C-alpha cells in the first residue's frame, strides 16, 4: 500500500516507508491505452494531468510560461493557418527545413502516431519507418547504411559507401553476398520515391518526393573496390538527421543480416531506438505501451489482423528471432493489454544486455567443439535441411539452454522437416527461431487425457513397434504458439 503525505507545497507525494523520504519523480498512475485523447489521469504526486500534452522542457523564469522552440512555433503557426500542399511545394527547392516543418504540420490528425491533438507534430522517425516498410530486405540494408553514414558525417553533402567495409560486420555465409546485396539494393532504390499519404486536415492529399540527387553503384572488376556514390536531397537529409533514427548502422549489420522478415527487421530498428526510452524521468528504461492502432500504422500491419494474427505473424517471430541473436545488445518481451476486457494494445519491455568490460587480449588456443555440433550437422544433412554453420551454432546453444541432448534433437528434426515440406501452410520466415521454439516446447500438441489412455491401451510394448508419429502441423503450430498464453 502506497503511503503519501503533504510536501512543502501542499501536494500529496508518495514516500519511501523505510526512509520516510519523498520518492523523487512524478509519474502517471495509469496507462493511456484504451483512453480517449486528452483524458486526465492522476499522478504519484496526487496531481491530475493530461498525458497527451507535450512535456515542457524550458520555462521562462520571469513569466513562468513554457518556452517553445522556433521550429515548434512555426509548426503551430502552419497548423493554425491551415496550410495546403501548395505551401509545401512553394518552399521545397528553397528551404528544405521549412518544407519539413510544413510536412509535419500537414499530417492528418487521424493518424494513430500523431499524439496530442492538432498542436503536436508527427514524429519524423515515424515518417521514415513507414516508408521503409515498403522496402525489400536488400533495399533496407543499403538504406540503413546510407542513414548510418549521414548520421556519422552530417556535414557532408555526398557520401561514398564501400560494401567491403561491411563484410566483417555481416553474418552472411558467403562474403560475396554482401556485394550482391548492395548492388541489388541500390538498383531497386533508384526507382524508389518517398511517399507521404493522407495529408491535410481531411487526409485527402498525398505527396511523392525524391530523396536523392545521385545514387549509383560502381561495380569494379575487383569487388573490393566497388562502392556506392550517394548525394541526398536537402529535404531528405534534413528529415533523416531530425529523426535521429540510425547511428552506427555499420555495426548493426551483424544483427540485421541474421534477421528475416520485414516485420522483424522493422521491429528491431524500432526497439533499438526505444531501449532507453523513459515514459517519465524516474521510469525504468525501455518499458512503453503501443496501442493496436499505433502498432498497425507504424509497421504497416493489415487492418484485418486481429490479436492472434498480430502475435503469430509479427510479434512472436520477431521476439524469437531478435532474442536469439547473440550480437543484438538487447532482448525484449511483450504483454497484451486490456481495458474492460477489450484488447487495446501491448506493453513492451526492452532490456539491454549487460556486458562485462574487459581488455581485449588475443588468445591462441586449440578450439574443441562439442560432438553434438557435428551430430546436428549430420542430422540436418541427412534430412536435407539446409542451415549455415552460424545457424547450427545458434540451434546448438538453444538446445544447451534447454538441456536437450542429441537424441531429443534427432526426434524433432523429422517433424520440422515435415513442416518445411508442407506446401499447404505458409513458408517459415525464420527457420532458426521456429526450430528453437520446437526445442523449447516439443512437437506434440496436448490431447485430452482419455485419448492418451486410449492410445496407451492400443500401443504394444517393444522397440520394434516404433513408428514416426503422424503430426497435424496446423494443430502443432497452434499449440506451440498458444502454450504460454
Automatic annotation (TrEMBL):
Pfam families: Rep3_C, Rep3_N
Gene3D superfamilies named among the record's database cross-references: Winged helix-like DNA-binding domain superfamily/Winged helix DNA-binding domain
GO molecular function: DNA-directed DNA polymerase activity
Domain Initiator Rep protein WH1: 125-271
Entry-linked InterPro entries: Initiator_Rep_WH1, WH-like_DNA-bd_sf, WH_DNA-bd_sf
Gene Ontology terms describing biological process: DNA replication initiation
Residue segments, region Disordered: 444-463
Family: Belongs to the initiator RepB protein family.
Protein name per Swiss-Prot or TrEMBL: Initiator Replication protein
Native organism: Pseudobutyrivibrio xylanivorans
Amino acid at each position: 500500500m502506497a503511503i503519501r503525505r503533504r510536501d512543502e507545497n501542499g501536494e500529496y507525494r508518495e514516500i519511501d516507508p523505510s526512509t520516510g523520504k519523498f520518492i523523487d519523480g512524478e509519474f502517471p498512475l495509469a496507462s493511456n491505452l484504451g483512453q480517449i485523447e486528452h483524458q486526465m489521469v492522476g499522478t504519484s504526486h496526487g496531481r491530475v494531468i493530461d498525458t497527451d500534452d507535450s512535456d515542457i522542457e524550458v520555462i521562462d523564469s520571469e513569466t513562468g510560461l513554457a518556452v517553445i522552440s522556433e521550429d515548434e512555433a512555426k509548426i503551430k503557426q502552419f497548423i493554425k493557418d491551415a496550410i495546403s500542399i501548395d505551401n509545401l511545394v512553394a518552399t521545397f527547392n528553397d528551404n528544405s527545413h521549412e518544407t519539413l516543418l510544413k510536412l509535419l504540420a500537414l499530417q492528418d490528425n487521424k493518424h494513430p502516431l500523431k499524439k496530442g491533438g492538432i498542436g503536436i507534430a508527427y514524429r519524423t522517425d515515424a515518417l521514415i519507418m513507414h516508408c521503409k516498410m515498403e522496402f525489400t530486405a536488400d533495399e533496407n540494408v543499403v538504406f540503413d547504411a546510407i542513414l548510418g553514414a549521414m548520421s556519422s558525417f552530417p556535414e557532408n553533402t555526398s557520401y561514398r559507401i564501400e560494401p567491403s567495409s561491411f563484410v566483417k560486420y555481416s553474418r552472411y555465409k558467403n562474403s560475396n553476398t554482401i556485394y550482391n546485396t548492395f548492388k541489388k539494393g541500390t538498383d531497386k532504390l533508384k526507382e524508389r520515391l518517398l511517399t507521404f499519404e493522407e495529408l491535410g486536415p481531411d487526409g485527402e492529399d498525398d505527396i511523392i518526393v525524391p530523396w536523392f540527387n545521385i545514387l549509383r553503384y560502381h561495380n569494379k572488376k575487383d569487388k573490393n573496390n566497388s562502392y556506392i556514390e550517394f548525394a541526398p536531397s536537402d529535404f531528405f537529409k534534413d528529415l533523416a538527421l531530425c529523426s535521429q533514427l540510425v547511428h552506427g548502422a555499420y555495426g548493426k549489420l551483424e544483427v540485421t543480416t541474421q534477421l528475416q522478415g520485414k516485420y522483424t527487421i522493422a521491429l528491431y530498428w524500432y526497439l533499438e531506438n526505444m531501449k532507453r526510452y523513459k515514459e517519465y524521468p524516474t521510469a525504468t528504461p525501455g518499458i512503453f505501451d503501443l496501442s493496436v492502432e499505433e502498432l498497425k500504422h507504424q509497421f504497416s500491419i493489415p487492418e484485418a489482423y486481429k490479436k492472434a494474427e498480430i502475435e503469430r505473424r509479427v510479434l512472436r517471430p520477431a521476439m524469437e528471432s531478435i532474442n536469439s541473436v547473440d550480437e543484438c545488445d538487447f532482448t525484449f518481451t511483450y504483454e497484451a493489454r486490456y481495458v474492460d476486457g477489450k484488447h487495446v494494445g501491448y506493453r513492451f519491455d526492452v532490456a539491454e544486455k549487460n556486458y562485462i568490460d574487459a581488455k581485449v587480449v588475443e588468445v591462441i588456443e586449440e578450439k574443441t567443439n562439442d560432438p553434438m555440433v557435428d551430430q546436428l550437422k549430420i542430422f540436418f544433412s541427412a534430412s536435407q535441411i539446409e542451415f549455415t554453420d552460424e545457424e547450427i551454432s545458434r540451434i546448438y546453444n538453444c538446445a544447451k539452454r534447454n538441456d536437450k541432448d542429441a537424441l531429443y534433437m534427432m526426434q524433432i528434426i523429422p517433424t520440422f522437416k515435415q513442416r518445411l515440406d508442407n506446401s499447404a501452410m505458409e513458408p517459415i520466415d525464420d527457420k532458426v527461431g521456429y526450430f528453437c521454439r520446437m526445442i523449447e516446447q516439443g512437437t506434440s500438441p496436448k490431447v485430452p487425457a482419455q485419448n492418451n489412455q486410449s492410445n496407451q491401451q492400443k500401443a504394444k510394448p517393444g522397440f520394434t513397434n516404433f513408428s514416426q508419429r503422424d503430426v497435424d502441423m496446423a494443430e502443432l503450430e497452434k499449440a506451440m504458439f498458444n502454450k504460454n498464453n
